[in-house]
């Protein structure tokens, strides 16, 4: 019997059978198939590489062919120009020295062909020059060749080249003249571009002096500079090599010689274009490899499926064993697999027996640990939850489960505040719909409830129907949830404030005891701490939301720095702008996102502002997260503690790129207008000079005309009409000359570079008034200069502005009262504001805008002037970064307001 009572010794553990992994079979078959495909891939790769090499060689040959073709085109073009000049040089007018007659032939050629020629004597002096730009009166190497009796082509000079032929006396060898075309280098560039060269290729023409004559890419940048060393060292009629372009781009370069002008035509093909066939070959190779790999994988999978099916069935049986399900022996499989399957089925049976034993023990453990799990989950929720609603739901649900209550509720006390007087509201409920409580309103102030709401302690009733504390209000209301067992615990904070109350009920009596009461009382203490935290978090969140709203209202990127000026903590706006991580921008790491040219100045000025504890303003370029540099204006101020110590710096970056771009475009437009005005006025003066000359000839011929008309009846009338016409022409010429001089003056002022310096404006304007005191006294006017703010600006421009305004005020004073002119000023919003006021005639409201226009004047024109003064003043004020405004009434006077920055850059 003893032997029978002893337990059998445990069976030795059997080694687990090795698993067959179908994936391993598939992998090996795929490797085998790929091994067969490798030779095919190698062969294909070699073929494609050869093809790519041939394509590259073809492109290099095309480049040399293009250089030859363009060299031939340039030869044809220059030869055509030489032929035109030689034909023109055969003119009979030149042979007999009639330069005037030859001028007509040159002008006819210019009209028909657009070619403007120049005729010079052998010493280089221009006899006829109808070109757009005058040719210099000096001889160079090309002219020396022409003087030797041969046509010559010069190199590039100021973006132009010259074709020259000698004019030789018939029957002799003496050179009478030099006949030339001076042509823009763009003529050759257009010839190159007309050949249809690929847009990423670059072609250059190098003249006889090894300078770049023109270029298909960026000619305005490189025309006239020395050619690269490789091209200057090139000799022979043609050649090729690998080098770099003038921009530093790697190229294959081929050149050919244009013999007529003695130029070299170079064609550059980017290495990127030459490498394109190689990349295409690699793509084809990759596609071929991918296709062969796919075919190999499909074949391997097909072969492996038949091998892996029995092993898959065996794996499924092992999975069933691991999950405790029945694992019957497999049938219709190889013997080796069947043996393993039988072992698995036997193991499955033994496992089910052991599982049954474990489940009995686990049921007992679950019953004991369930309560602890609820407490643990609730503790975690109370420690991490900051939302009052979710917090209340978690407490009520956990307490209801722990006490076995049918219903649980948490009432929250709402203190008196902006929303109204103190009141109680239902926060959380479980075991019943909210309407079951809310339709009865707040709990009645019975003896049973009042003790809990007054934080009097735990209230426990085994049966409220027989509890004398409950029946004082007529018992349970009709339709109320059936409650007999009742448990209530107040929720009180550590400061003694009542936060709420936990109430639990059950339709059966004697369901709650001291154990449940102690448990809920502990939960109420934890809930009080959590509710305090939630209310504190809500308060902090409201402040944070207010701060975030303020941040969003700021137009720009907001950031903060520590009191020492170093960037710390999380800076989400700066990180979003620059893409920097906290590790990258911490301290002065933010400067790495600033443009290298602006970095040192930004850090230096920032450190100076921090050291001086003053407001910081600056501008610099910042690299955005996408790599693009933008211009930002920075404003930063220190935030001070009550004791005056700096707590932190708060700053904002505002993107002003579009503003600065618009300002640059405006400056460029103004410069273009000024250049245009200069050119127009210059071109207008030429015909005016001719008119003046012809008018002088007419005046000189008046005596001859009188003699020719002597004795005729109409002689006196014709002589008077002629004299009157000549006087009208001379008056118009004088007026036109004044207008042209005014335009030239305005253009020159617009192009002048300003030199900023500190200006004591009171002394400066007083000096201007003193200079015009004689005119003022003559007009019966007094000039008063107030206390004016100093500025930093260009002295000449400021003197011209206020000198013109004072002169205008004197010129247009009223005749019926003494004149009074006052100049006052002040600083407003960081700008200097000056007023020049008079009590003169005044300006009609319709003319307030017109008086600033060129050649526009207002009112009676009884004073000398050309209508350019106020236009000049407005141009200067705008150039200084300011504005000018006008306020005036007829008969009362005029006030000009000039607003200027306190400091010019």
UniProtKB/TrEMBL annotation:
Domain HAMP, residue spans: 305-356
Question: What domain of life does the native source organism fall in?
Answer: Bacteria
Q: What is this protein called?
A: histidine kinase
Q: Cross-referenced Pfam families, in alphabetical order?
A: GAF_2, HATPase_c, PAS_3
List locations, semicolon-separated: Membrane
Its keywords, alphabetically, are: Kinase, Membrane, Phosphoprotein, Transferase, Transmembrane, Transmembrane helix
Q: Which residues form the PAC domain?
A: 616-668
Which segments carry the region annotation Disordered?
1-20
Q: What is its EC number?
A: 2.7.13.3
Picking any one GO molecular function of the record gives: phosphorelay sensor kinase activity
Which is one Gene Ontology cellular component term of this protein? membrane
Domain PAS residue range list: 543-613
Q: Where is the Histidine kinase domain?
A: 679-904
Gene3D superfamilies in UniProt: 1.10.287.130, 3.30.450.40, Histidine kinase-like ATPase, C-terminal domain (3.30.565.10), PAS domain (3.30.450.20)
By its UniProt entry, which InterPro entries does this protein fall under? GAF, GAF-like_dom_sf, HAMP_dom, HATPase_C_sf, HATPase_dom, His_kinase_dom, HisK_dim/P_dom, HisK_dim/P_sf
